[in-house]
Write a structure and sequence with these properties.
This protein is an alpha/beta fold. It has one domain: Decaprenyl diphosphate synthase-like (Undecaprenyl pyrophosphate synthetase). The protein contains eight helices and six strands; from the N terminus they run H-E-H-H-E-H-E-H-E-H-H-E-E-H. Strand 3, helix 5 and strand 4 form a beta-alpha-beta unit. The longest helix has 24 residues. The radius of gyration is 19 Å and the shape is globular. The termini are far apart. The protein binds 3-methylbut-3-enyl trihydrogen diphosphate (IPE) (2 copies) and magnesium ion. One 3-methylbut-3-enyl trihydrogen diphosphate (IPE) binds next to strand 2. The site of one 3-methylbut-3-enyl trihydrogen diphosphate has 11 residues, from strand 2.
């Protein structure tokens, strides 16, 4: 029996994470290890992304969020940044029809206005074309920074209070969440980070408060359906106490 089949038998299909967030990390090291330029790693990473999206859709994960570009990734050399800014384009060109056929709704979390015009155009068009879809939600954290997101929310709320549209008493965890990029999305139940790094790198700082974390040494281009199922299986064995105790 293949590993995939045996993992499929171990999974409790009634207890899937409602939202899985993935930090796609390790593309550069994957390429360097093979004597290839870093961008070859990003290209290979995109193939992994397509594979994991299609599998997650098959197994009916309701929401997937992928960290694609952080607000700190602008610090990389311009050639790499330019390449990364072309990838959303490429991804949309090759996959949009597929997303539509599979009833997938695309979402973006991040400072979209801070992206180059051509990236923005591709992204906005894809958002529009999938906005009525009612199946899996595919969310990309693009030009995303958790601290920036929180500051934006604070500013938005402060402006509402100043204009008398909201009272200070109305500021609570629910209303605050509604001012984040991820408004109306359930918080992730499971965070996956490959590549051996064990940090959040400014990803979903508010939303991951009670997520289960799963790390692996595998580089993102080598990440497989089996790894996803291992993470889900491991998640299902965790005792999510939320600060309480077993009675
Ligand atoms: C993740 O891979 C992709 C992005 C950050 C865009 P990296 O490019 O960070 O790969 P490593 O961590 O350098 O190996
Ligand atoms: C996080 O990975 C960002 C993305 C995967 C898009 P990084 O490679 O940028 O994170 P650090 O620099 O190792 O913390
Ligand atoms: Mg990295």
């Amino acid at each position: 029996m293949s590993e995939l089949t045996s993992l499929m038998q171990l999974i409790d299909w009634n207890n899937l994470p409602r939202h899985i967030a993935i930090i796609m990390d390790g593309n550069g090291r994957w390429a360097t290890q093979k004597g290839l330029p870093r961008i070859a790693g990003h290209r290979a990473g995109m193939e992994t992304l397509k594979k994991i999206i299609s599998f997650s859709c098959e197994i009916k994960i309701p929401i997937l969020t992928f960290y694609a570009f952080s607000t700190e990734n602008w610090r990389r050399p311009p050639q790499e940044v330019n390449f990364l800014m072309r990838l959303p384009h490429e991804y949309i060109r090759s996959e949009l029809q597929n997303l539509i056929d599979n009833n997938i709704r695309l979402k973006m979390s991040g400072d979209i206005e801070g992206l180059p015009q051509h990236t923005q155009k591709a992204v906005r068009e894809a958002l529009k074309k999938t906005e009525k879809n009612s199946g899996m939600i595919l969310n990309f954290a693009l030009n995303y920074g958790g601290r920036k997101e929180i500051i934006n929310a604070v500013r938005e709320i402060a402006a509402k209070v100043k204009q008398g549209e909201m009272s200070v008493d109305e500021i609570n965890e629910d209303t605050f969440s509604q001012s984040l990029y991820t408004a109306r999305l359930h918080d992730p139940d499971l965070l996956i980070r490959p590549s051996g790094e064990m940090r959040l790198s400014n990803f979903l700082l508010w939303q991951l408060a009670y997520a289960e974390l799963w790390f692996s040494d595998v580089y993102w281009p080598d990440f497989t359906e089996e790894h996803l199922l291992q993470a889900i299986y491991n998640y299902q064995k965790r005792d999510r106490r939320y600060g309480g105790i077993e009675l």
